[in-house]
Amino acid sequence: MVFQNLALVVLSGVLFASALPEPFVRLDAESLQRPLQSTKAHVQKFVSDGDGPLTSENKTIYEAITGDPRFSRLTKAIKFSNDIIDQLNDSSSRITFFATPDWALRKPEESALQGLFRYDGDVMQAQPEMYDLSTAIHAYEELANIESFHDDSEKKRWKRFLRMLVRVILSYHIIPGQVDTQKLSEVSTYPTNLSLHFAMHDEPQRIRVESSLIPPRTTVNFYSKVVSANTKTANGLIHVVNHPLIPPITAFRELYMAPSMYSIFTSAWQRSGLTDELDLRWVHGKGDKKGHIEGTSVATVFVPSNHAFGLLPKQLQYYLFSPFGAHTLKKLLRFHVIPNLSLHTDYIYNASSHHKHSVPRVYRTEETYDDPLDQFLAEIIDTEEYFVANGYSELISSFNVTALTLLPKHPITINIMKYNVTLPFPGPRRPHHIITKMYANGQRVAVPDIVALNGAMHSMGTLLDPRKTGHDNGRVTDWEGWEDWLPKWAMEV
Ligand SMILES: *[C@@H]1O[C@H](CO)[C@@H](O)[C@H](O)[C@H]1NC(C)=O
Ligand SMILES: *[C@@H]1O[C@H](CO)[C@@H](O)[C@H](O)[C@H]1NC(C)=O
Ligand SMILES: *[C@@H]1O[C@H](CO)[C@@H](O)[C@H](O)[C@H]1NC(C)=O
Ligand SMILES: *[C@@H]1O[C@H](CO)[C@@H](O)[C@H](O)[C@H]1NC(C)=O
Ligand SMILES: *[C@@H]1O[C@H](CO)[C@@H](O)[C@H](O)[C@H]1NC(C)=O
Ligand SMILES: *[C@@H]1O[C@H](CO)[C@@H](O)[C@H](O)[C@H]1NC(C)=O
Ligand SMILES: CC(=O)N[C@H]1CO[C@H](CO)[C@@H](O)[C@@H]1O
């Protein structure tokens, strides 16, 4: 469904001070390798908490969840909204639902709730914590106990507001179709049942999916792990997750929330007066005038990490952030953003033509397998690179697209390659896994497909070099000697 005005509510104040940092922790190189002990612990907890997996066969998702005491808080949230009930109980459709058990909906800090209820009434200025499912549920429960309301109408207004909020949040937990974790392992992003008319022109908001084979695991949006997968119901599947999903905020604000990774980019972006090219916000109406949205509703950004800026020669760093380099900095930054296009490694939405498509498969090679099981076992801890490099993989697609950046004369060519990696286990059912690699003008994207309210983000370990074009895969970007060409490039029209 399309949330009209009510969704503006959500957009306006949303900075997840408490809820967001965790997702981005995963982006640090260090935590990339962190073992997932916590997931294991949660699985054990989930299973030992009650009677094991959900029992569901002939029940709808709604009936399975509401009939299981381990989901009592989620049940409350679902019952706030007839619309959500209808979706989860509709036996004629097939959907997949990410369900959060009670232990994953911990009581928020008292101060978060207090702060929430102190706010002075205009829904457009809602506090950020409200986007968190747990806070919203607790706030709703608290309503009855709060005596400071002037009258019942204030309480009613609050109730309406929280219901809307929960409906938006839960729509983001529903994906169309019956999508098991095997299917999820073949995608990078997936549309949800949440769409908002002011962002992405009503295109569904997406989740980011990451899967690994060893240990088998599925993670959504970096922070939410599937702890019990593929429960069958009469109208689809349930995956139990250890953290509620948080509908994405704007690209700019998401980056701003991860200063350890992107503070240089965001301050450079702001300093160059470009905020609106990646942000989206609600502007209040004055007098009779209606409020309206300002900013960018669809864009793709290749965002260099702090580490990428740190690799530039020191003198260049000083120059870019000096008054003399301001123009160069701005031009360089504008080269990193594609307006009017949301490009993920498996999905493209072109807002100029309203055209959308999945990234097609266009290329297929023969399977090539060696049989060095010993070597394989020795290397198994190694990265996916190993499998690609050593012939356990099949290139199943290579897709290229060229798009204009905010610097019209400097397009970016993006190359997306997908490999089907098959582990050489004996027996007929060899586990397999899809790996995606993405290049922008031949430069490798470090972390692709970070979802945002208003587009797609791809984290880069290097700045895009404007001298490189097309598929310039070979040459390593070297910024030494930048004095000879960069200021000149910046002056070109
Ligand atoms: C579910 O429904 C089918 C067909 O109506 C029936 O055969 C089966 O026993 C039911 N399963 C359970 C667990 O009730
Ligand atoms: C859910 O659907 C079943 C039929 O599949 C129906 O009997 C039941 O009343 C519905 N529950 C709600 C709360 O709508
Ligand atoms: C995006 O597309 C719209 C038309 O749909 C156009 O008016 C606008 O100028 C485009 N923006 C940019 C930055 O190209
Ligand atoms: C998006 O659509 C516009 C208008 O049809 C077209 O000019 C442009 O090339 C398209 N962009 C991509 C990346 O396909
Ligand atoms: C990947 O390979 C396996 C077997 O090696 C095959 O069963 C599976 O269909 C392949 N997947 C894709 C998407 O090509
Ligand atoms: C896309 O570009 C890559 C890198 O240059 C090239 O190897 C590949 O063949 C291209 N794919 C297609 C389908 O044109
Ligand atoms: C935007 C969107 O995907 N809406 C869907 C939500 O789920 C219902 C029921 O499955 C569909 O009918 C909607 O189209």
Automatic annotation (TrEMBL):
PROSITE patterns per UniProt: FAS1
SMART domains registered for this protein in UniProt: FAS1 (SM00554)
Keywords: Signal
Signal peptide: 1-19
Highest taxon of the lineage: Eukaryota
Positions of the FAS1 domain: 58-245, 249-464
Coiled-coil regions listed: none
GO terms under cellular component: extracellular space
Protein name: FAS1 domain-containing protein
